[in-house]
Write a structure and sequence with these properties.
Length: 360
């Protein structure tokens, strides 16, 4: 067992996807509670830095642009020598890639903690159990076991600052948006094509909800790669809705979500953005399954899926095309079911209803 009192310098290494980084934020507070006298640095990709730079438990962010400017062995070794100068006592590595394990092994940090399922597990000094049937948030708390620390479960958090709030508020004031009306956020994109519910189905949900509850507002959110998809949906809806795709940073997007009552999204990073700002999230699962540990974390959230489909799951992340060529995991999810899920929330139910309309 490691004596937490002897630890003064900590680095946490996580260079995975944005959603993974959001789900690691509870670990920051937990490590701080276990080692209150230590400084905690965080190594992540440049894309993830915006999420954590306002986190009060992080002393410093070190970025590793592994797919672009720091790609290749030379840049990896350059980072190694940079980290050696920091004289860290311990490294926690939630990311299970061989590259992350090798990076930390090369730094000669004396205590290196990783999961027992890591591709580079032989390079760690201590291994913690990766609980396959647990949520990712709870799996990350396993790192505290090497410190013999009690676990106080917390939820993911993103902390927009004053500049983020002012920018979003100003932008919304210029849109067809009313603070007095209930708003639903829609995130139709995903890095993985087979994780995307067809845009026509999102359009159908928006139109049905508008007919049932005319005062509802809708905001489309997404990154640069989602811009065309959000534009496609906006152009085909016959009433004004707000399109924020590609306009904001991740923290600003989180601030925007705080203005909303509910988020409808695919199994992608926006799920965890919504959780981090504590609004209800409805997540559509297709090729992946909630049992992987990446469902919306906490109470008040819901999932929509075709549970007994023979070919699910077809991969850890999804893919570019359906291996079975029928895409039933997404195509069989009907807009009517999604609308029913949305209408189950009291804040949505309480919106003025249009007489003579129904889901069917």
């Amino acid at each position: 067992m490691i004596n937490a009192e002897n630890i003064k310098r900590i680095v946490i290494v996580h260079t995975a996807f944005i959603g993974d980084i959001i789900l690691a934020t509870p670990l920051f507070e937990a490590v701080h509670q276990s080692c209150p006298n230590a400084t905690i640095d965080f190594l992540c990709t440049p894309a993830a830095a915006n999420i954590v730079e306002t986190n009060p438990y992080i002393n410093r962010i070190i970025t590793y642009d592994k797919h672009d400017k720091q790609k290749g062995l030379f840049q990896l070794l350059k980072l190694v020598f940079q980290l050696r100068k920091e004289n860290y006592d311990i490294a926690f590595v939630p990311h299970r890639s061989f590259r992350s394990a090798m990076l930390i092994w090369l730094t000669r940090i004396p205590l290196r903690i990783g999961f027992n399922t890591s591709e580079g597990r032989m390079l760690f000094t201590h291994l913690v159990n990766y609980q396959k049937n647990s949520h990712e948030v709870e799996r990350n708390f396993a790192f505290l076991t090497v410190l013999n620390s009690p676990i106080h479960y917390t939820t993911p958090v993103i902390l927009p600052n004053t500049d983020d709030a002012e920018l979003v508020t100003k932008w919304l004031s210029e849109q067809p948006f009313s603070q007095e009306n209930t708003c639903i956020a829609i995130a139709p994109g995903s890095v993985w094509q087979t994780k995307r519910w067809p845009p026509e189905k999102f359009i159908r949900v928006i139109e049905m909800l508008h007919n049932l509850r005319p005062t509802l507002q809708f905001i489309l959110i997404g990154g640069e790669k989602d811009e065309a998809l959000c534009d496609f949906i906006q152009e085909r809806v016959e009433f004004p809705l707000v399109n924020a795709a590609a306009l904001f940073t991740l923290r600003q997007s989180a601030e925007l979500l705080k203005k909303c009552t509910l988020l409808l999204t695919n199994d992608s990073a926006p799920t965890h953005l919504g959780v981090a700002v504590k609004i209800p999230v409805i997540t559509l699962f297709g090729p992946t399954i909630p049992e992987f540990g990446f469902a919306p974390y906490g109470k008040g959230n819901q999932i929509v899926e075709i549970p007994d489909l023979y070919c699910r799951p077809c991969g850890i992340h999804g893919g570019k095309i359906c291996p079975e060529k029928h895409f039933r995991c997404m195509m069989d999810i009907e807009p009517e079911l999604v609308v029913q899920k949305i209408l189950s929330y009291e804040d949505i139910q309480n919106q003025p209803a249009e007489s003579g309309t129904s889901i069917n």
